[in-house]
């Protein structure tokens, strides 16, 4: 449901809490509109993200998503609420029968339509495989994650919409100046980016020199914005999906 023009003037009413989240995360209503509310006061300090706060990074991720033009991140903004200022994001009603990212028995990996990420063993020591859809919308999410340096793309952070679209959520651990990419979407390692993906990178690079750069200035440090522009340039110049690098884990934990 679209937001009313006076949404920020409406009272934000908390209706429940999402207890699986590591930080304070609440279901709320703005009039008839359902939203997710993450107050800054509910954030846990992180030693490796010392600058700013997670809410600002979530808002910044939405702005970059809009510059790409791919609708990766649902409408997200900052506003005051019952527990103080925080991030508010439009609630998404997902299709529970769809799984864009899945863990399957190692001998049951589909031959078509899916990408195999890696093999492992479950808690019962049974061989399993991490897989994800081989779709244009997930490819774009992987490009987005590379640019914003997403350190926490879990399977559960991919929302499966009934119409086949996929939203990405939970972008508090993004925009670090050091390489932090941890994701379950590694299915296209070293494959060429297509023309639409390269065009998206160009849109973001151009926007960073104008309106996007100005909008990000209150949300991120100058060094983080410079690093963001650098990742855009490097990914566009390489013209292909990256591969894991460095000593840090390539995937988040837990995976979902």
What do you see in this structure?
InterPro entries: CHP03843. This is Phosphatidylinositol kinase. Keywords: Kinase, Transferase. GO terms for molecular function: kinase activity. With 256 residues, the protein is of the alpha+beta class. The chain folds into two domains: 7-95 and 135-238, no CATH class; 101-132, no CATH class. Helices cover 25% and strands 21% of the residues. The protein is built from five helices and ten strands. The chain has helices spanning 54-68, 136-148, 195-208, 211-216, 222-238; strands spanning 12-17, 26-30, 33-39, 76-79, 86-90, 101-105, 114-121, 127-133, 158-160, 166-168. A hairpin with an 8-residue loop joins strand 1 and strand 2 (26-30). Helix 3 packs antiparallel against helix 5 (222-238). It is globular, with a radius of gyration of 18 Å.
